[in-house]
Structure formats: structure tokens, C-alpha cells
Amino acid sequence: MKLEDRLQISAMRYIRMQYPDAISFHVRNEGIRGTKEQRKAYGAKYKRMGVLSGVSDIVILEPRGKFHGLLIELKAPKGRLTQTQKDFLNKAENKGYDVAVCWSFDEVMVKVDSYMNLNHI
């Protein structure tokens, strides 16, 4: 299992244990495996279904402070943000969401806890 996958699992386990009433989920937007033809067919299908490139890994739909929700992009220590991920985070931030890029489980915990402890609007 890839490091980023383990980080994703640990992050969601933490969020759901600490904040069981929060609406939180992972957006499955990873690459598709298979032959080139299969990847192309699946990619076209998912695009028609509304998959949006660059969407953050974790979405927490709980308004806090001045924000509508929290979006977290997870990256392994040597990972890099793609331009589509940067663009998505900027658009979401401009729409009133808190956004973060987290490179470790500790960063996820700190960000989620600080966000969830903001006062409601």
C-alpha cells in the first residue's frame, strides 16, 4: 500500500473517531489502473459522470468560523501538487472554504482540530 493511501486511511479514521457527527468523506479521484484502452474508457466515463480533476482528497462539510467547510489535499512527503490541484484549492478558497495541504498525519490532526474548534458563524 502506498504511503499516501495509508495517510488517507489514518486521516479518515481520526476524523470519524474524533468528530463522528461531522459529514466527512474521501473523494476518489486517483488514477485508474488497467490497459491504456481501459484507462481511456474509464476516464471518459468518469468525466461524463462529473469527476473533476484536482478535487481535494478529504472534504469536511461542517461550517466553522467564516468557512463553509474544510478541504484537505494529502501528499506523501516527496509528493507534489499538480496545477489542477492548486487551481481547485484556490477556487474553493475564493468560494469560502478553508483549504489545506497536509504532508503528514500530524499535520492532518492539527488542521482538523483547529478547524473543528472554530466557532460557528
**Count of the separate structural domains:** 1
**What is the CATH class name?**
Alpha Beta
Count of runs of 4 or more consecutive helical residues? 4
Q: In total, how many beta strands?
A: 4
Looking at the overall shape, the CATH architecture is: 3-Layer(aba) Sandwich
Shape field: globular
Helix percent reads: 40-55%
Low-confidence stretches: none
Question: Can you give a write-up of this model?
Answer:
With about 120 residues, the protein is of the alpha+beta class. It starts with a helix and ends in a 5-residue tail after the last helix. α1 runs parallel beside α4. A 4-stranded mixed beta sheet has the order 1-2-3-4, sandwiched between helices. The chain is about 45% helix and about 15% strand. The protein has a single domain (about 5-115), classed as Trna Endonuclease, Chain: A, domain 1. β3 (about 70-75), α3 (about 85-95) and β4 form a beta-alpha-beta unit. The longest helix is centred in the N-terminal third of the chain and has 16 residues, at about 5-20. It has 4 helices and 4 strands.
